[in-house]
Amino acid sequence: MNGRAMAAGGGQEGRPSRQINVVLRNHTDLYSVQGGSAAEADTPQTQIKDNPQFAMYQDIQKELDELVGLESIKDFVFEIYAFLQIAQMRAQAGLVSGSHVYHMVFKGNPGTGKTTVARIVAKLFQKMGVLTKGHLIEVERADLVGEYIGHTAQKTRDLVKKSLGGILFIDEAYSLARGGEKDFGKEAIDTLVKAMEDHKNQFILILAGYSEEIDFFMQTNPGLPSRFPIQIEFPDYSIDQLIQISELMAKERDYILMPQSILKLKQHLLDEKNDTSQAFSNARYVRNIIEKSIRHQAVRLLNQYSTGSPGKLELMTLRTEDLKLETK
């Protein structure tokens, strides 16, 4: 999802508290970031931000501040920055500062900001010298899996080569394991595991997808869990956050939602949340609604102003009749 489309300022109602757990597993740090009811750890970010070396993080901070919600994710990104900054200081002081594994798993429903956060993380790693380029290669099953024996391995190796110096982001990664032992997806998994060893510290692999499916996927290869020490849960947006996102999406396109339109959209989202068993609480769903409403507005204006041009305000306004919302 486009980062600007998720932009926002200010807080939201019902913001969940977070807990960030660090579990040592085979001498590798496992960061599990998720929503929870436990109290937050007291991180003295204000003191760290007073450090002159924090300047390199300011661009990253600005992008994070524009995102609606995702408070636990923002805290995690800052922890990564703090860890890298202190690691540099330790190295300068002659202390042990060994290499760290940054391969990650992003869990959550579609449209909850996983790709946007991956791009921000890539920039952070580039600024801090972990990655040489900081680019992001986004792929899915079709980009990795070939049509005959050996084809998949070559396609996968080629994509790994393109991602060196940056991040290889595999969306719906669990689809690689759906075909069973004889499916070429298994060949892609095996090739990725080998590439992580052959190109250690040269690229970062991020697997993304629904939480349950990703958890199942991680069990398909015994070498996978230990190679992904960072697992992050992306929560669904609340209704209020989705409304905030919709207003920002309209604003960046030079449109405004009438108060009545906002109420209509909010009721629709509430109904969908109560009536559907499928996950909808994400910004991609709202983006589709806004884009359809813009098209409906265009048809309405052409019909109403067949002999002239609407005024500027009318060209910008999305009314309730433009939000033709479908229920499942």
TrEMBL record:
InterPro entries: AAA+_ATPase (IPR003593), AAA_lid_6 (IPR041627), ATPase_AAA_core (IPR003959), CbxX/CfxQ (IPR000641), CbxX/CfxQ_RuBisCO_ESX (IPR050773), P-loop_NTPase (IPR027417). The keyword Electron transport does not apply. The keyword rRNA-binding does not apply. It comes from the Bacteria. Belongs to the CbxX/CfxQ family. Gene3D superfamilies: 1.10.8.60, P-loop containing nucleotide triphosphate hydrolases. The lineage of its organism: Bacteria, Bacillati, Bacillota, Bacilli, Bacillales. This is AAA family ATPase. Keywords: ATP-binding, Nucleotide-binding. Residues 100-238 form the AAA+ ATPase domain.
